[in-house]
Structures are given as structure tokens and as C-alpha cells.
Design brief:
Helix content: 40-55%
Number of domains: 1
Radius of gyration: 16 Å
CATH superfamily: Flavin prenyltransferase-like
Order of helices and strands: HEHEHHEHHEHHEEEH
CATH class: Alpha Beta
Number of strands: 7
Number of helices: 9
CATH topology: Rossmann fold
Shape: globular
Structural class: alpha/beta
Strand order of the largest sheet: 2-1-3-4-5
Strand content: 15-25%
Length: about 190
């Protein structure tokens, strides 16, 4: 009889997860998430917005994932390829953790003005987004409309929870706990 731990380890085996980290103080939470995804057998490739690199360094994610970290769409560090489409084609799942109001708005608007948004637009993979932001930003009608717009086209969300926010308040905008995000990853990947 297989243990639950063994089953979980196999649930992400041979899956390539593009983990997109955006510019939020919650970026540090993605570090543990990389470790947990790797433990379950996933190949984790990290993409970072420029703002994300102000919170956690690419070296941290490279060390944890064992893979190169991508942030510059015009990098000349390797053999020529169209980077955003090459990465998009590798994805079993695109995971955006943490997702800021800015990235949600740019995705809802169809923007492709950095590597993360370009990869998302170029990919046929499922997209799972875990927002983290100020409670007023999350509750703002524009943010809520952008989330609804993305849900209508098939993007999945792990809604934020009430918790301590960097502004000093307690409110809905705190990123959900990693076990809940991991469960949503498994559900999204294995949904028919």
C-alpha cells in the first residue's frame, strides 16, 4: 500500500512548473514553495519580474531549484532561441506566486511587456495565480474585475486570506499558506 507521502511525491513527477515571482514582500514565501515542489518531483523553473529581484535574489531561486532563473527577455547568455516561447512550451503549469495587483492587471489587459507576461501569453499551459497585496488594493473594483476577467478565460486563483499585511493592518490580501497552494497546484494540474 502506497503512503500518502509517496503518492504526493509522484503527483508532480515529470511536471515542469514555471514559477513566476513578482514584486511583493511575499516573494520570500516562494522560496519554501520551490523546495516543496522539488520534494514532490517537479522540475521548477523560476521567472522573476525586475521588481521581484529587489525582494529576493535570483541566486536564491537558482540554488533552491537547481535551474537557471530567468528575468531578462533579451538575455544573450545561451544558444539562440526565442526565450519566451521556449519557456512557454516547457510548462506543465504556470504558477504566479506572489501575484501583485500590477501583474494581475497586466495579464488581464493582455500585456506582454516583460518576460513573465510574455511567457504567460505564449503558453497553452494552465495558469494558477496566488495574489498577495494590500487589502485595499485587493478589494479595489479594478483588481476584482481583473481577477474575474482572468477566471473567465480559464485562469485559476488561490485567493488571499486575512492576515498581517506589510502596511501594519490585518486584512484580506495575505498570501495563502503553502499547503493550500500545493493542493491547488495538484488539483489544477490533474483536472480534466
Amino acid at each position: 500500500m502506497k503512503t500518502q507521502k509517496t503518492q504526493r511525491q509522484r503527483s508532480l513527477k515529470n511536471k515542469t512548473i514555471l514559477l513566476c515571482i513578482t514584486g511583493s514582500i511575499a516573494a520570500y514565501r516562494a522560496c519554501d514553495l520551490v523546495r516543496e515542489l522539488k520534494r514532490e518531483g517537479a522540475n521548477v523553473v523560476c521567472l522573476m519580474t525586475e521588481a521581484a529581484t529587489k525582494f529576493v535574489t535570483p541566486l536564491t531561486f537558482r540554488s533552491l531549484s537547481g535551474n537557471r532563473v530567468y528575468s531578462d527577455p533579451f538575455s544573450n547568455d545561451e544558444d539562440w532561441n526565442v526565450l519566451h516561447t521556449t519557456l512557454a512550451d516547457r510548462a506543465s503549469l504556470i504558477l504566479i506566486v506572489p501575484a501583485t495587483a500590477d501583474i494581475i492587471a497586466r495579464l488581464a489587459g493582455g500585456f506582454a511587456n516583460d518576460l513573465v507576461t510574455s511567457v504567460v501569453l505564449a503558453s497553452q499551459a494552465r495558469v494558477l495565480i496566488a495574489p498577495a497585496m494590500n487589502d485595499h488594493m485587493y478589494a479595489h473594483p479594478m483588481t476584482q474585475e481583473n481577477i474575474k476577467k482572468l477566471e473567465r478565460i480559464g485562469y485559476h486563483f488561490v485567493k488571499p486570506i486575512a492576515g498581517d499585511l506589510v502596511c501594519g493592518r490585518i486584512g484580506v490580501g495575505h498570501i495563502e499558506d503553502n499547503p493550500i497552494i500545493l493542493a491547488a497546484i495538484r488539483k489544477t494540474l490533474h483536472a480534466k
